[in-house]
């Protein structure tokens, strides 16, 4: 099983790689520090499995999963994350993930997860499976349009309207209109509240 591993923390990635190298028949063929790099590596190397974190710079793990799934539906994608809320899991699955594993899982579960996604097409740890049975609150994708989610991420990163407009190819006035609509839809009144919302939904790192 050829695996591409993605996590923006070098130490975490090294630890996961070391554990995977102890699993017979598993080879880590490449590593990525962000979602954009992950998409490129998968395009070039065509691995069997992608194991990725969610919160990464440049492109988050869920966006990367969605892009990879649309181009390479046969690649199995396993999320390895510290986020265990139902909306994170459901967003990952909706974008194409076939498994979800917590970073605090015991080491043996890593082998169990990767073998399961290859053999049966899915793996969800017992804790995650139990959470999936609970009702979930709406995700950012449920509450906002794709463009609004893009703008909200940049607002939460402290970008000014002009910067956001330049990055997304919009006018500053259009960005301001989107921001007003986001605030109205979410019933939030200031940038600090928008930022807290973005962190809670996993759109940006705390």
From TrEMBL:
Taxonomy, superkingdom: Bacteria
Give the transmembrane region(s): none
Listed CDD domains: LuxR_C_like, REC_NarL-like
> Which Gene3D superfamilies does the UniProt record give?
3.40.50.2300
The UniProt keyword set, sorted, is:
DNA-binding, Phosphoprotein
Q: Name one Pfam family in it.
A: GerE
Question: Which GO terms fall under molecular function for this chain's record?
Answer: DNA binding
The cross-references to InterPro entries, in alphabetical order and at most eight, read: CheY-like_superfamily, NreC/VraR/RcsB-like_REC, Sig_transdc_resp-reg_C-effctor, Sig_transdc_resp-reg_receiver, Tscrpt_reg_LuxR_C, WalR-like
Domain HTH luxR-type, which positions? 137-202
Q: Does the keyword Secreted apply?
A: no
**Record GO biological process:** phosphorelay signal transduction system; regulation of DNA-templated transcription
The 4-aspartylphosphate modification is found at 53
Instruction: List, for all copies, the residue spans of the domain called Response regulatory.
Output: 2-118
Q: What is this protein called?
A: Response regulator transcription factor
- What is the species listed in this Swiss-Prot or TrEMBL entry? Ramlibacter albus
């Amino acid at each position: 099983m050829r695996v591409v591993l993605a996590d923006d923390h070098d130490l975490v990635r090294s630890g996961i790689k070391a554990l995977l190298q102890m699993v017979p028949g598993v080879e880590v063929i490449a590593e990525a520090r962000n979602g954009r790099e992950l998409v490129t590596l998968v395009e070039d190397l065509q691995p069997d499995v992608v194991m990725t974190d969610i919160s990464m710079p440049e492109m988050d793990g869920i966006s990367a999963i969605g892009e990879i799934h649309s181009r390479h539906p046969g690649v199995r994608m396993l999320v390895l994350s510290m986020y265990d809320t139902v909306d994170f899991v459901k967003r990952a699955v909706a974008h194409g993930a076939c498994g979800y594993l917590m970073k605090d899982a015991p080491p043996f579960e890593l082998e169990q997860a990767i073998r399961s996604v290859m053999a049966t097409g899915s793996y969800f740890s017992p804790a995650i499976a139990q959470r999936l049975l609970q009702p979930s609150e709406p995700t950012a994708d449920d509450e906002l349009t794709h463009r609004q989610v893009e703008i909200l991420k940049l607002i939460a990163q402290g970008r000014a309207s002009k910067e956001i407009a330049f990055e997304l190819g919009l006018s500053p006035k259009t960005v301001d209109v989107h921001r007003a609509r986001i605030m109205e839809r979410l019933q939030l009144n200031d940038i600090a509240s928008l930022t807290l919302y973005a962190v809670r939904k996993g759109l940006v790192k705390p």
